Every structure is written in structure tokens, then in C-alpha cells.
Amino acid sequence: MIEKGGFRVALFWWRKLLFYLVSLISRNEAPPVVRRAQGKTMSEAAPRYQFGDVSQILEAVVAADGSAGHSHPGGARTSFGPNATLSLPDLADAAYYLCLLHGRHPGVIDHAATRSADNAARNWLIQAADAFARERAYLTQVTVAVGPAPSTAGQSDCETVVSQQRHALDMLAQSDRRGCAMGAAIALVLDWRAVRHVLDIAAIRVGLEPHVCDLPERAATLDMAREIGGDDTIDRAILFGARQLLNQHRGLWDVLQARANIRAGKDQVLNRA
Q1: Distance between CA atoms of 17 and 23, rounded to whole angstroms?
Q2: 40: Cβ–Cβ under 8 A, 6 or more apart, which residues?
Q3: Which residues contact 60 (CB under 8 A, 6 or more apart)?
Q4: What Pfam families has UniProt attached to this entry (predicted)?
Q5: Structural domains in the chain plus CATH codes
Q6: How far apart are CA 87 and CA 76, in angstroms?
Q7: What is the model's pTM?
Q8: What does the pLDDT look like over 167-198, one tens digit per residue?
Q9: Which residues pair with 196 in a beta bridge?
Q10: Strand partners, 41
Q11: Which of these, 2, 18, 107, 134, is most buried using a 10 Å CB contact count?
Q12: C-alpha atoms less than 13 angstroms from C-alpha of 79 in its C-beta half-sphere
């Protein structure tokens, strides 16, 4: 009951966050500190400090609040053998919900490409959009191979929340505020390496050969961010878009972790019976 209660709290916080994000995007305002699904404050390890350009702040934001720092996808590092921390149902769950969030075209990068007028971003956007189309196909392949998401309490609520997340990301990536859509696209490319690790583990577990990821490299992405930034207003918009995309990724991992905990609790009850 405690874990189920915690799961409801997670969904409650993310519905509030999604509503708040949509209202912020429509007003084109920068947000104050946003609360996470677990009721904790998002890391401010990379706030608006006075030193460094936008690329350095982006790198710090992704390091502090990206998927690599979340305990659930981090568990994929030890997902083989008897000490595996993510079961095959956990990996199937992750692939299914990631497919709901990023498996449709047009996506965040595609929308950003139609919003950006920066010549410095053109080649990066072409490479990123083409590469993410292949990532989308790989995501679909892995999702089919690992099977359907495991039945878990609150299934319909989870699908509703992730669909709302998808809508929020679409709005973010179509914002008319210059730099906002690019910030979301940049954060997606930088954070996808950690997301991809989970998909690769899932692929290996079911006998698929992981595909090569040819998204733009971190250094090239940060160089491009530095070129399109430099203006305080644009820098704030880039960071807003990046932070909000990372918020959505971490929110998804929070929900997936809560679902895994519910299934683990159910299994323990059945084993004791």
C-alpha cells in the first residue's frame, strides 16, 4: 500500500508539473524552481551563475539533471546475470513508454528544425534529425522485441501521463520563443546517450544487435550551442527548453521506477504465499 500510495503521489506531481509547463510555454515565461515527482526540488547544480557560456551551463545541467544521474536507468549498468537490477519486464516497460514519448514523427528535433533560423545550427539539425529517425526505428524494433509493457497497477494513468508529456514536449519544441525549441533538441541529443544505454541492454537481453548511434557528438553539440547563444535572452530560452526536456525525462524515469517497485512488491507477496 505504501508503494502504491507513492505511485499515486508521483502521478499527482507530474500532472501538476505538466499543467504548469504548458501554461509557462503558452506565456513564454521562464519558470521558477519546479518540484519533481518525488516531491523534491530539481537539482540546481547548474543555476544561472555568472561564469561560463551557455554550452558550459548546458553541460552542467545535463550532468546534474539528465537520465545518467537517475537511479532507475542507472540500474541498467548491472542488468546481466543474477545481480541484474532491471528485469526484462522493467526493460520492456522502459522501451514501451519511451516509444510513447519519442516514437512518433515529427519529434522534438524535427519541430526544432522548422523553428530555427540560425545558420550555425543548420548542419547540426540535419544530422540530428536524420540520426534520430534511425533512433526512432531502433526504439520501435526494441519495443517489439522485448514484448508488451508488463501489467502494473495504474496502467491507464501512466499512459495518460506519458501522452501528456508527449504533448508538452511538442509544445516546447514548437515554441515561438527563439532558442526554446533548440534548447529542447540539444538536451535530447545530449541526454539520449544515457537513454540509449537502457535500450541497448534491452536489445542484448532479447538477442538483438544494438545499432550504432550516429547522433551528433557531445563536443559538436556544445560547440553549436555556443555559436547560437551569446545573447542573454536566447541563452535563457535555450536553458529553459533544455531543463524542461530533462524534467520530462526524469519524470518518466520516476514513474517507471515506481511501477518497478510495485511489481517487485507484488512478486514478494506471491513468493511468501
Answers
A1: 10
A2: none
A3: 45, 46
A4: DUF6975
A5: 72-271 (1.20.910)
A6: 9
A7: 0.82
A8: 999 999 999 999 999 999 999 999 999 999 99
A9: none
A10: 35
A11: 107
A12: 24
